[in-house]
Write a structure and sequence with these properties.
CATH class of one domain: Alpha Beta
CATH architecture of one domain: Alpha-Beta Barrel
Radius of gyration: 36 Å
Oligomer: single chain
Largest sheet: 5 strands, parallel
Structural class: alpha/beta
Shape: elongated
């Protein structure tokens, strides 16, 4: 028995509006609502809705046999709620089938794992809560932003209670080994690893519509032939890709939906493969070896490293700047501050600043709202400058409150002491009045008793004289 694992990444960032230097300190709203709405509704119609319908069709056609998995970023879900609630409803329908696994990730699709364990943990817990609320699902498998992974990240993920993590089957990490097995972390042996088969994944995600590719056109029959050519000892084929592959990166006219509709039938008829979720795979197959990754890897570009986000001075300056504000954010109780802090961490902002071209250049231009990386950097830093000013103002207000608190506390103490004195005086007066009434009552009682005794005595004396 062998397994095919389909995993789809679903993500859309909150794109920033054009934010000029002269708006710093005056305009505190940073987002391009028109662009965000337009992109979301476009992708919903071209990808999310038709592909969700297709997956539901396949799940119902092959009950208990066809399975897929998703990670949906929190910022994407926020946009579903704002601009395309029908997409969220369609994902809920998929969740109800029981044949779909949802993975956890960072809420903001951020790079927090590279900079702040505290913020990383906060966002992961936020995302987990969201999955439980929306889909009644508590993920036990994790995938970090853009499959970024290292030994240090493995430690954090395992500490948070996850059983497995998805990452790239990078050649420089695997060496002679194949990604078609379950592995485990070299630093956390109980954390299992599922590694992307980038050759077979990219055949669908990137090369499918390329007419200059020597294997074009790609059909389900041809793809299944490639699967059957894989060594029978290999156990899992991890097909990891952006969900937008279907209908957006590869338009419907390319035949991508027809390919996906036909693939399960060919797999079931002509191979010994089964479709599994990541959790099923790690419970079915034993890990074969440890994997050590001292330096972070990702699934981006040919290098499979971090240079797509942190490969030049602009990116690193912007990245360091936003996280330099973390301590101040954590001391401020302001909902909008926290929301902006979350959205400004989204990895796409740094991706737009990438200066890599050649083979990877076209990828970095996809849905990029900027003409060039330098515009992306300037715009982002203008926004962060305003955000920092807001933080300083809030922090100053907090500092003033802390600085003035001894005087405020003293004033409160004086006020309450005066109140206490007033209450004590009232209590004293009330006690005195009560005591006075009690004395008067006792006095009258004593006089009455004496009078009665005197009458009794006189009466006895009179009787005595008569005798």
């Amino acid at each position: 028995m062998r397994a095919i694992i389909f995993y789809f990444q679903v993500h859309q960032p909150f794109r920033l509006k054009q934010y000029r230097f002269f708006e710093i300190g005056y305009d505190h709203y940073y987002y391009d609502d028109f662009a965000n709405r337009s992109v979301m509704q476009k992708v919903a119609q071209k990808c999310y809705l038709p592909m969700n319908d297709l997956l539901l069709e396949l799940i119902e056609k092959y009950p208990g046999k066809f399975k897929v998995s998703f990670s949906i970023s929190g910022v994407a879900i926020d946009q579903f709620k704002l601009y395309a609630p029908e997409v969220l409803d369609s994902f809920k329908k998929l969740a109800q089938t029981g044949q779909v696994e949802f993975l956890d990730e960072t809420y903001a699709h951020s790079l927090a794992s590279l900079k702040s364990p505290r913020e990383f943990e906060r966002q992961v817990r936020m995302h987990n809560q969201l999955m439980r609320e929306l889909f009644n699902y508590n993920p036990k498998v994790f995938r970090n932003t853009e499959l970024i992974y290292s030994d240090d990240i493995a430690k954090m993920v395992y500490k948070l209670g996850y059983k497995a993590i998805l990452t790239e089957g990078a050649k420089h990490v695997l060496g002679w080994r194949s990604p078609n097995f379950v592995y485990y972390s070299g630093v956390e042996p109980k954390l299992k690893l599922l590694l992307k088969n980038y050759q077979l994944s990219d055949d669908i995600a990137f090369r499918f519509s390329n007419r200059f590719w020597d294997q074009w056109p790609l059909t389900a029959e041809k793809y299944v032939a490639w699967l059957n050519a894989i060594d029978k000892k290999h156990e899992v084929i991890n097909l990891f890709m952006d969900y937008e592959t279907f209908g957006e990166h590869q338009w419907a006219e390319t035949g991508i939906f027809d390919f996906m509709r036909a693939l399960p039938e060919y797999v079931f008829k002509y191979t010994d493969f089964q479709f599994m979720t990541p959790s099923e795979a790690i419970n079915t197959f034993q890990p074969v070896a440890p994997i050590n990754v001292p330096n972070p890897i990702s699934w981006a570009d040919e290098a499979r490293d971090l240079t797509a986000w942190l490969g030049n001075e602009m990116q690193n300056e912007a990245f360091d700047k936003i996280y330099s504000l973390e301590d101040k954010v954590y001391q401020i109780d302001d909902q909008q501050i926290w929301k902006d802090w979350l959205y400004l961490q989204t990895s796409d902002h740094f991706y737009y600043m990438c200066t890599k071209f050649f083979a990877d250049g076209d990828v970095h231009m996809y849905f990029n709202p900027y003409k060039n990386p330098y515009d992306a950097f300037v715009n982002y830093m203008n926004v962060v400058s305003d955000f920092e000013l807001r933080l300083k103002q809030k922090y100053t207000e907090l500092g003033d409150l802390i600085a003035n608190s001894p005087e405020q506390i003293k004033a409160l103490i004086d006020k309450y002491q005066q109140e206490i004195k007033k209450l004590q005086q009232k209590l004293k007066e009330l006690t005195q009045k009560t005591a006075g009434k009690s004395t008067s009552t006792r006095s009258k009682s004593t006089k009455t008793t004496r009078s009665k005794n005197a009458k009794t005595t006189r009466s006895r004396n009179t009787k005595a004289k008569g005798k």
